[in-house]
Amino acid sequence: MTKIYIFLLVCLCTSLTLSALQTSISGKVIAKDDNLPIAYANIIYKHKNTGTFSDEDGYFSLNINQAAQTDLIIISHIGYETLNISLKEALSKKVFVLQRTQLEQVVLSAKSNFNLNSFIKEVVKTYNKGRKKDPHIAVAYYNESAKIKEDYIMYMESIGYSIFSGKMANAAKYSNYKFFSDNSRFYITNPEWTFYNDHEDRAVRPSASANLRALRVLEYQGILSSKNYKKHKFKQDSTFYDFRDNLIRRISFKGNGDKGFIDVKASNFEILEINYSTNKFFSTIKNKELQADVRMRFNYYEGSPYLNMVSGSYNYNNLRHEIYLKILTQKFKEFNFSKEEYWAINDYNINPFVRFNSKIWNSFNIDSSKVLSVSKNLEARGVDLIEEFKTYQNRWFLSEGDPKNFSVEMIEGLRRNF
Question: Which residue among 31, 168, 252, 396 sits deepest, i.e. has the most Cβ atoms within 10 Å of its Cβ?
Fold first, then answer.
């Protein structure tokens, strides 16, 4: 009788707790009244305060570790009733329907009663008031490529962690927002790529953190700086409405080495996108700031802006260098990152241990269009990209070392946050 009881208890625990490996929820968020997709909806895993956002077409994918079937998934968007469902129910769905709430309609005019200076001041104030100053972490995907004319000579991609470490003693001004690789594959052995090496006898380091640095530069020196935004000239370029009839103001700006536009939701001053050229983008090839084109998108949760995507690209001589970073899962609360931990893994962003797990990679539903394009391009010149990936595995990026290094263990420990 005791053995039967223990057996039933084990079965119950197994049914309530999912695999220790990642569980993936994916689907599409739509509105009940018209079946149209809801872009930028919040999809939150309450147990660990992690989540993601639906894309422009309403689709999302969220990976969760060591979850229970009874854990709560919360899907929400301003103007809609919040949907609370169990993880078990969420796994059985592919379409998630939100009911529109009855909100008082606010009519905004694109021209009347609009003061550009006051509007920009409120945009910057709203951004900095909501911006998280404490450490936070996200699972992120990044890729970068280099090509001469139409021929690719380098490609790297990785799933890892973007970490904002807050205020750290003795840290450089822009160095507290970095990307740390975890699951990676690199093609960096082409002699035409190593020709651009300005780092003595070592490979050009990965550039994902350069994209995150671009945001920090905007927050210190650019249009997001409370002190320095006035150094720019602003002009309202246009107004338009998004898919849910929200008025968006597109404001052009120029100054302090930057030129571009910013899209802002008129009703609450939330920044949706910044698209600009700058002379302050850090090049890992030249190890200095160069002229580049940058694009950023933001999502919001409980009034705080979170980076959704950032891309950077530039030309150097006859080389085209492109870097793309996308946030996959954001942790919104309860991330502790000490000064000692920061310095322990500080160099890991430029010298990661290169390893690749295809099962974990595939669970994130990464868009493969870029790697397929690069692969096809290389194949036409007799280069097998997948085989090249395999030759640069289970080793340190810049130098040899122990794969059981403390920094590797710390990177593995970051998974527990999700």
Answer: 31
The string of pLDDT tens digits covering residues 62-120 is 998 888 889 999 999 988 999 999 999 999 999 999 998 865 444 444 455 789 999 99
For 260-272, what is the mean pLDDT?
95
pLDDT band at 8 (very low <50, low <70, confident <90, very high): very low
- Amino acid found at 156: M
